[in-house]
Amino acid sequence: MPTFLSEISLNRLIYSSAFLKLKTLSIRSPRTIFETALYFAGGATSMSYASMMRRNEPLSWLCLQLRAMSENFEWFSKLSQVNMNTHPAGIEVYIPEKPWNYITEKPFEWEEIDFDSGMEIMRQGIPVTLQKTKAVYLLNKNRIKAMTDEEIKMLLSKNVVCDGETVAELTRRGFSELLGVSAEEISTGGIAERLDDEYDWNFNFFFSDGARLTLLSDKAKEVTSYYVVRTQEYAGVASVYAETALGGRWAVVAYRLFSHIMSFAKRNRIVEAFEWVGGKLPAKLTTPERMLLFARVDENERLRAVSVVNTSVGASDTTRLELVGEYHDAEWYSIGKAALRVETDACNGTTLVTLPKIDGWSVGTLFLN
């Protein structure tokens, strides 16, 4: 069934591309080529197109769409081949084994639950996927309500990053002792999160929910942020690293984890949380642009491609990537641009790459050989 970019959200495009190998688009949209690139970046291996109402459109208009497809054919063909022989890398958004177990009052009310929330954090240049990686799980409270006790215990033995409201839900379910942390939900309208003596997220203009944490075990290793009131007085624990009683490593970011609006300092703390839990991210931004990253690795967990989506309306300035592994041969493709060789700085198991300028609402792919 044809889809129009104006009718569906970016998150829905990402969600679909995680599961579909073949996607059909209408070539009526002037941004068909962007949508095509986004699906390939998300893992699609084939695309088909439907020319709807073509007799009501000038042939020259349709030719513009076909020309764009032809100009980018080499890039899409190369990325399709990479997708066939690789799998996504990064943080796995945890989906319950049986989401229909969500306890509701109305029949089929579980269909309205936003189980794929968490994708918002992708805009911070953190690779997140709905496919199975089992390296680090990203968990939110909606999923807890659909999980059995056995499933929760399984996650308590794994590597997990979650927010404070998720811990509050676990507290209600009776799992705080195993986690070593409990939480109570609070309004964050009159408090700020302080990351350390230098940085804080100023008194927030969102009257949103958050949670205050209580440490119950000496395995709650490190408090990474705390709340203060307007007079800068201490108002409780906001974030913590903890080792659970079942051997898991959990990072709890109690305040606004699932948000695409945050400071660069806050974003870097979230990256540190992911890396404390599960080791280095396969790819990450080291500059403060708002971009999506789609990382693809082979059977040996070596990066083969990283696609980058500029989600702002303006062109990027200097975009730098840090990659796990040493790579000396990199090539950059983007919409309507000729392929470019990109210099890499590889040392001590890490590669730094500075990307060419990326237009607003555009996509490019870095291929690593």
Structural class: alpha+beta
Shape: globular
| Termini gap | 36 Å
- Total count of strands: 23
The main β sheet shows up as: 9 strands, mixed
Helix count equals 9
Uncertain segments of ≥5 residues (pLDDT<50)?
Answer: 1-9, 11-20
Approximate strand percentage: 25-35%
- Strands across the major sheet, in which order? 5-4-6-7-14-13-12-9-10
Radius of gyration: 22 Å
What does this structure look like?
The chain has helices at residues 10-17, 32-41, 59-71, 73-84, 141-144, 149-155, 164-173, 176-179, 264-278, and strands at residues 22-26, 46-50, 87-89, 91-93, 128-129, 137-139, 159-162, 181-187, 192-194, 200-201, 209-215, 222-228, 234-243, 249-253, 283-285, 291-297, 303-310, 319-324, 330-334, 337-342, 344-347, 350-355, 362-368. It has 369 residues and is an alpha+beta fold. The strands form five sheets. A nine-stranded mixed beta sheet has the order 5-4-6-7-14-13-12-9-10. A six-stranded antiparallel beta sheet has the order 3-16-17-23-19-20, covered by helices on one side. The protein is 22% helix and 32% strand. It has nine helices and 23 strands.
